[in-house]
């Protein structure tokens, strides 16, 4: 599996990494059960901050594309192929669009929606 990061790309570096690993899974360049480099090793190989790689790995683990087995390492999840095809961002965007449409139908202004969204985000971060 070859990963290339483009620092000129407006897409965040961790997102580039997530997308490339998912693509490698979908295209069978890496298979369920295969081991992945450690966060430190991949960060060194790609000349990235280890926190960037850790964030990508955390998202991939959340999406059940990879799984950490403690000191034994990180591996491609048994259901990674199916899980790599799920786009949580698209799902969240669809839900937000539905909520915004419902608010606008009820006569809520864009400004009120923004304020409510910000308030909801702040109350859920605590």
From TrEMBL:
Domain HTH gntR-type, first and last residues per copy: 11-79
Domain of life: Bacteria
Matches recorded under Gene3D superfamilies: Winged helix-like DNA-binding domain superfamily/Winged helix DNA-binding domain (1.10.10.10)
Xref: SMART domains: HTH_GNTR
UniProt keyword Transferase present: no
Single GO molecular function: DNA-binding transcription factor activity
Keywords: DNA-binding, Transcription, Transcription regulation
PROSITE patterns in the record: HTH_GNTR
InterPro entries, alphabetized: Tscrpt_reg_HTH_GntR, WH-like_DNA-bd_sf, WH_DNA-bd_sf
Alphabetical list of CDD domains matching this protein: WHTH_GntR
Keyword Phosphoprotein attached: no
Pfam families registered for this protein in UniProt: GntR
Protein known as: GntR family transcriptional regulator
Organism: Colwellia hornerae
């Amino acid at each position: 599996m070859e990963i290339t990061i483009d620092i000129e790309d407006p897409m965040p570096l961790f997102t580039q990494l997530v997308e490339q690993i998912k693509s490698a899974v979908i295209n069978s360049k890496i298979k369920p059960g295969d081991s992945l480099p450690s966060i430190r090793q991949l960060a060194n190989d790609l000349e990235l901050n280890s926190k960037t790689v850790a964030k990508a790995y955390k998202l991939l683990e959340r999406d059940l594309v990879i799984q950490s087995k403690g000191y034994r390492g990180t591996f491609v999840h048994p259901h990674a192929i199916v899980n790599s095809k799920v786009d949580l961002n698209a799902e969240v965007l669809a839900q937000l669009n539905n909520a915004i449409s419902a608010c606008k139908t009820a006569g809520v202004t864009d400004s009120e929606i923004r304020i409510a969204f910000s308030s909801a985000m702040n109350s859920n971060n605590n």
